[in-house]
Structure formats: structure tokens, C-alpha cells
């Protein structure tokens, strides 16, 4: 009888032990910390912030302080602390600046990069649906000059001695648009990610301060000392013309 009891107890211990190991090791119940960033809260006067808000057109704008985020974008704001890596990879910090807590702070929550980009695309698609005409059917026949057989534009090699620096981020569509535009014109481009490289962020801030501007949006574009905030083909063309003529700021 005692032997029988001992065998039953041993079997129960083995079952519990195996069950515990399975819960820890099989990956079906990941620890919450793997899907959540460390806790973060910000105040009105918190320093070293990059605050990104999305307008109704799906365009993103960057502010350096809580106070400068406009009312239209305060309900969903991405937060990057410039000296902190958390929130710059697959998981983002976002805050609702319309909800201040009793201690006068704003609590950040975790949002996936995919969810953030989906929100941007949703607003952009909604806006374009109201203003954009229907897309024409794709042309038939051979590709036009400058296009590959797959229909993708192939940028020509640089043909100008002007080099343009673009300060932006990997998720910033206008930053990529500016780069593609310049490369197609044969302009050398140097890209600097202000989120991945703290020195690039500091360099951008210094140039903005020197030119008497603030970072209302990205990209920030440096054309031989001419600092442009935001993406405007016309402004870039004028700056390149000045630079090519030997006129710089």
C-alpha cells in the first residue's frame, strides 16, 4: 500500500514539473514584457523628446516639446526619447496628450510599428479618397526610357556636384520621396536617421537652431547650408539651383 502511494505521488510531481516547463518553454504564452515596453511617462517640460503626430492627410510631423503638438494631433503621439533605444524598433511608445494624470504626467503605452504604420496609411487613404482622381490604367507596350522591364524607375548616376543631406526616419514616407526625387535628378544624397543615430539628431537640431528654425516636420534637408523643413520639390529645386550657382546660406 505504501509503495502504491509513493508511486502516485511521484507521478503527480512529474506531471506538475513537466507542465511547468512546458508553459515556460513552448512559447505559446510569451511573457508580457516581450510585448510591452518598459513603463514611460512624460511631462510638459520633459527634455530630449521627438514627438510625432499624424494629421488628417496622413502626413507625419515632429515636435520637440509637448506644448508644440497641435490640438488636432494630440490624441495619438509617438514618443522617442533621444538618448533611449526603447521605442525605436518594432515596438513604439505612444501617448494621448489629451489625458493628463493627477501627477501632471502623460502615461505612454506600447504600440507595434505595424499598428502605427497602419494608422498612417488609413488616414492617408481616407484623405486621398476624397481628393484624388481615379488612377489611369497602366500603359501597355514596352517600358519608357529610364524604366526597367519590371516598370520600376532606375535612377541615373549622380550628375551634379551638389550633395544633399536628408535627416529623417525609416518610417517617414516624405523622407523616402525626397530621396527618390533627388536621386532621379542625379543629385548625391546622404541619409541620416535621427532615431537610429543620436549624433544625427543632435546635428539636425544644431542646424535648425543656427538657421533660426524649429523641427516642425521631417525630413529636414540640408542643401549646402540651406536648411529646408519638410518636403517640397519646388523649394528643393530652388535650393539646388542656388547651390549649383555657388550661392549658399
Structure report:
This protein has 249 residues and is α+β, with helices and mostly antiparallel strands. Among the domains are: 35-121, no CATH class; 163-244, 3-Layer(aba) Sandwich (Glutaredoxin). Helices cover 32% and strands 20% of the residues. It contains 5 helices and 10 strands. The chain has helices at 2-25, 113-131, 173-184, 198-210, 233-244, and strands at residues 41-42, 49-54, 60-63, 77-81, 91-95, 106-112, 163-168, 188-193, 220-223, 226-229. It has a 6-stranded antiparallel β-sheet. Strands 8-7-9-10 form a 4-stranded mixed β-sheet, sandwiched between helices. Helix 3 links the parallel strand 7 and strand 8 (188-193). 21% of the residues are buried.
What's the gist of this structure?
This protein is 32% helix and 20% strand. With 249 residues, the chain is α+β, with helices and mostly antiparallel strands. Among the domains are: 35-121, no CATH class; 163-244, Glutaredoxin (3-Layer(aba) Sandwich).
Write the layout of secondary structure elements.
Elements: H1 2-25, E1 41-42, E2 49-54, E3 60-63, E4 77-81, E5 91-95, E6 106-112, H2 113-131, E7 163-168, H3 173-184, E8 188-193, H4 198-210, E9 220-223, E10 226-229, H5 233-244
Parallel strand pairs: 7-8
Antiparallel strand pairs: 1-6, 2-3, 2-4, 4-5, 5-6, 7-9, 9-10
